[in-house]
Each structure stands twice: as structure tokens, then as C-alpha cells.
Design goal:
Layout (H helix, E strand, L loop, with lengths): L2 E7 L2 E8 L2 E5 L1 E3 L12 H6 L5 E4 H6 L3 H6 L3 H5 L5 E4 L2 H6 L2 E5 L4 E4 L6 E4 L1 H11 L3 E3 L11 H23 L8 E6 L5 H14 L3 E4 L8 H11 L8 E4 L5 H9 L4 E3 L2 H7 L2 E4 L2 E4 L19 H5 L2 H9 L3 H28 L2 H11 L8
Parallel strand pairs: 4-14, 5-6, 6-10, 10-11, 11-12, 12-13, 13-14
Antiparallel strand pairs: 1-2, 2-3, 7-8, 8-9, 15-16
Helix pairs in contact: 6-7, 7-8, 8-9, 10-14, 10-15, 11-14, 13-14, 14-15
Amino acid sequence: MSFSLIASHGNARAGLLRTRRGEIRTPVFMPVGTQATVKAMSPDELRSLDAQIILGNTYHLHVRPGEKLIRDLGGLHAFMSWDRPILTDSGGFQVFSLARLRKITEEGVHFQNHLDGTPTFIGPETSMEIQRDLGSDIVMAFDECPPHPCTHEDAEKSLALTLRWARRCKDWWQLQPTDCRPLVFGITQGSGYADLREKSARALVEIGFDGYAIGGVSVGEPEEEMFRAIESAVPFLPEDHVRYAMGLGTPPQILEMIARGVDLFDCVLPTRLARNGTAFTETGTINLKNAPHATDPRPLEAACTCAACANFSRAYLRHLVKAEEILGLRLLTIHNLHFYLNLVGRARTHILDGSFGEFREQFVRNYVPSGRTD
């Protein structure tokens, strides 16, 4: 088995996920490296933050620079000088959110890519071939992500196609040599409909994957509906397999997902908000563009040990942000990723010692979703 459950506290889990490039302690947050880079971060900086695994994207790397070039240069790990595990998204979400003039068929999706409009095709087997050439350690099955909102009829039709594609992805890997086979994860879909989420989870388990993801969440639905989508799928996923909530979320949302039995997370928020001058803290976000920070000698977070907090004041960081200096967005990115990685690490510690419930309750109670004003 690729996943071992070490401890649990309620539905929250601490485990070990084994990949061909080492073990990953879960729950874990994966910094997003869509274009073979986590924006503003070097691989050494990611290692210094103890990032155990990062995420790349099949669609973007296929469009530019192309998986064949990456393969010929030694694979994605060598290409970006990253020696730890990499998970690649299948490209399904990007095809449906970015591509122009797409046409969905049983075979896959014909579309014009978002860069220059070049006609492109990605289907289940194509996505698997791209991820194989990238050298991913965890690959995601190709799926269709329905929009929000959508009718039950449309969601059911989309799910049926996703399940047929999932079978083709699994069958494709079964024909590959075992020594080059990564972990392969299936993706549950079903929009906000509990019966479809259950149907999706049961069908994927019957096909048999190394891990299971909850897809089609954080696509514009209310937070309560996102939680229900997780709750509708997780009970039907095996306890001895890892679970991955794709593309979310805020710090409180991640703790809520951990409490519901999810193990893996990725989200662009820590890097994206850093580039907009926003920092995460224990009690909410800080917008450094706000005037009160102009003369503030304090660090972003008094107890934080990241390079930004250990060396610089809010006043200096605000100056960098206002002057549009690259160092500012880099320091805020370091801080935000440190915050997210530290948060899930602390969650694991509290699961192991049986105090996760209290930790989660206190954190969520103290966190201001709309951001701090001090």
C-alpha cells in the first residue's frame, strides 16, 4: 500500500504517503508550481521551508514548453532542479476553464489553447502520456470539471464521462512497465449533488486507484456547499488510501477539510495574495498597502520564524510593496508559504497528540476571514 494511517482524531488523520521519491507526512500542503516553478521561489527556498511535495500542471507544461522537451532534458525534476515528489494535475480543470472553443467528445477534448489559439487535443491517454513524460510521482486521472451551478442532469452526464475516462486512465497505466509507474489518483466529481458524489466515489474505488481526490470544489460555490461535497464523498473512500481536496483553500477551510478526513491540499492563495501585498497571520490576513503599516516596526507575526518576520518590519515590507520591488513579493511569498506549511504541520502534531479538535476550534474562532485592520 502507498499510504499508512498513523493516527486519527475524530475524522482527522495523520499518515505517511510513500512515493518513489520518498515518504510524505500527511496532512500536507503542496505549493503550486504550475509552470515548473513556484512563483517567486527557488527550489532551495522551498526545501528550507520543508515543502515535501509540489504541484505541476499537465495542461500548462504541455502548451509551453512541451513535455517532450522536458523529457529530453531529464524530466520535470531535473528541468526545475527539484528532487522531492511532484504531483501533476491532469489538465482537465484548465481545459474547461482556460481553453477556447472546446469540443468535448468521448475520446477527449479538442480546443484552442489559451496562449496562441493553436488547435490542441487532450484525452485520458494523452494526459497520461504527458504526465509520464514529465516524470510525475503522482498523476491525476483526466476528468471533466462541470461548472457551478449546473443541473443534476448535466452533472450526472459529466460524471458518467469522467468515470469512463478514469477507467481508460487506469487501463493505460496497466499496460506500462511497473518500474516507471507512478501513483495514480482518481478524481471524484458530481457537483453539489450528494448522490452523485457517492456514486462517483464508489465507482472510482471499484476501478481501483492509489489515492482519491475530490474535484470540482472551490469553483464558485458557497463554502457550505463545498463542505457538503467533501462530506458526501469521503465516507465512501477507503480509509487506507490517501484523500486529496483539489485547489483549496483558506487556512480555516484547510483545517475544516482535515477535520473531515482529507490529507492533501494545494492552493494558489498564499503565492497569489503575496504578489498583491497580502500576508497570512494566525488571526487573519494583513494588507500591507494600508497606510497604518507605513511606520509599523513590528514583524508580520511576532511568533513567526520565516525570513521575512525574522529580519524585516511591516514598514519595510510595505515600502517594498508600494515601490513594486521584487524583494517585497518574494518575502511575502516566503512568509505565506511558511504559514501554510507550518499550519498543516501543526495540525499533524495535534492529531498525533489527540488535541486537534481544540487546536482547530481555537484557530477558526480567532481567524478573521475579512482580514485584520491593525
